[in-house]
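A quick aside before the break. I want you to see a complete sequence-to-structure record at least once, exactly as it would be stored in a machine-readable document. Don't worry about memorizing anything.
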Amino acid sequence: MNIKELNDQELVRLEKLKKYQELGIDPFGQKYKVSHSFSEIRELCKNKDAVKLEKFDLHVSVAGRIKAIRRMGKASFMNIQDKTGNMQVYLALDGLGEKNYELFKMADIGDIVGVTGVMNLTRTGELTIKAKKFTHLTKCLHPLPEKFHGLTDVEERSRKRYLDLIMNEEARKVAFTRPKIIRSIQNFLDGKGFVEVETSILSPTLGGASARPFVTHHNALDKDFYLRIATELNLKRLLVGGMERVYEIGRLFRNEGMDASHNPEFTTIEIYQAYSDLKGIGDLTEKMIRVVAKEATGSAIITYDGKTIDFKSKFKWISMNDLIKQKTGIDFKKITTFEEAKKIAEEKGIHLDKFKNTIGYVMNEFFEELCQDDLIQPTFVYEYPIEVSPLTKKGKDPRFVERFELFVNGKELANAYTELNDPLDQEQRFLAQLEAKKMGDEEANEMDKDFLEALEYGMPPTGGVGMGIDRLVMLLTDQAQIREVILFPTMRDR
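That is the input. The structure line, written in C-alpha cells, reads:
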C-alpha cells in the first residue's frame, strides 16, 4: 500500500489499525462462531408480530459486512450483509456497555463485524437484531463505492468482482444461481444413470471441435500441447471402454475473439449416451433444460431480454434446408455444383472463405447469416452438411449428417450428433480436415490416430450433446453479457 496515493478517508482507516492494536484487538480478526444466516433468521421469524417475536426470544450470533451506519448519539443503527442478504442491527449504549459501544463507534462502512443479540421488530415493522455485543473482525481499508453511482461500469465490475459482489445485488444473485444450475444438471443426469468424469485439459492433438487453440509447452516432455477445445474425443474413448453413459462439466479454451457471448475460456457440458441417437439425446436435452430452468427460476417459462422464452412447451424441430427455403426460397438439396452455390452466395452478399469450396459450406453460411437470428424460441435445427460436421454419422442422404444445434434467442445453446463410430469413415473425415487446414482453415481438426485406433475396438451407437453452461446461465439469469456470469472473465489490459 502506497501511503502517498491514499486519500483522507483511507488514511483515517489506516490510522485506526494502531488504535485496535492498543485495545488488544487484532484488526484483521480471529475465528467467530455464527449461529444463523440472515435467510435462516427471516424464515424463523416470518409471520410473527412484535409480541410473538418477543415471546419467541430468538438469540442469534451473526457476522457480515457493514453496508450502512446511522449514528444517533447513544443509540445507532447499522445494516450488515452476509451471503444471504442484509439485516438491520440496533446498537445502544445501555445494551452494549460503554466500552463495547466505543468499539462500535470506531467502525466504518465496509468493515466485517460480528453481532450477538436478540431478534425484535422496530415500530415500522422491520426485523432487527437488538445487539448485546459487538465484535470487530476485519478492517476495510478503502471506502466502498457510493451505492447508486459508484461501481456501474461493466468492465470495471468484471475487473473488481469482489467489489461487484459487495455492492451489486444482481451480481450476487448470478454468482449463487450459477452453481445451483450446475448442481441441478448433475442431479438430473445422475438420476438417469449417467456418470460424471474428468478428462485431461492438455491434449497432444487438436480435435473434437472446429476452433483455434491455445498452445502451451510441457518442459519435462519437451513437447507442445493444446489446451483442449472440446472434451469429446476422450469421452468417446470411455464409451469404447464400456462406461456407456458419461458426462463432463469443464473448462474449454479457444484462442478466438471476445464479445457479448464469447470468452476465451468457458464452461461446457458434454453428454454421451450409448445405444441412443440424435432424437434420443435431443429428448434428454429438452427435458434437462426444462427441469433446470424450473429449479433455477421457479418456472420453465422465463423472461430474457424482454422476451418470453418457453422451455415448458415442446421444442421445435426443423431441418437447416427447410429453414433456408422458408427464408430465401432456395433449396440447397437441388443444387448440384459448387459453382451454382457460389453464384447464389454472391447474389445474396454471402462471403465465402477460400477453403469453403463445397455446397455444404455455402449452405451453412446461408443459415448462419440469414436464419439463425430469427430462432427465438427453443429450436432444434437438424440435418447439417457433412463438411461442417467431421465427427457425425451420415444421414440417409450422404450429403448430410445426423446433427442438431439447439438455438434460443438467436444463439446456439447446444450441439448434438448421432456419433460417428465407423473408424474407416472417421479416417476419411480427418483427411478432409487436414486438406482444409493446408488451405488455411486454422480451426480444422488434426489426425488423431489414437482415437481412430480406439474406434477400431468398437464404440456402440451413441447420441452425444455439448451445451454451453455460460450461455444457459445467461438465459436463466437474464444477462446480456457473458462476462456477467463468469466470475473472473478474460479482460483486455486497461
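Two observations worth writing down. Residues 166-315+377-484 form a domain with the BirA Bifunctional Protein; domain 2 fold (CATH 3.30.930.10). The longest strand covers residues 59-72. We'll return to this after the break.
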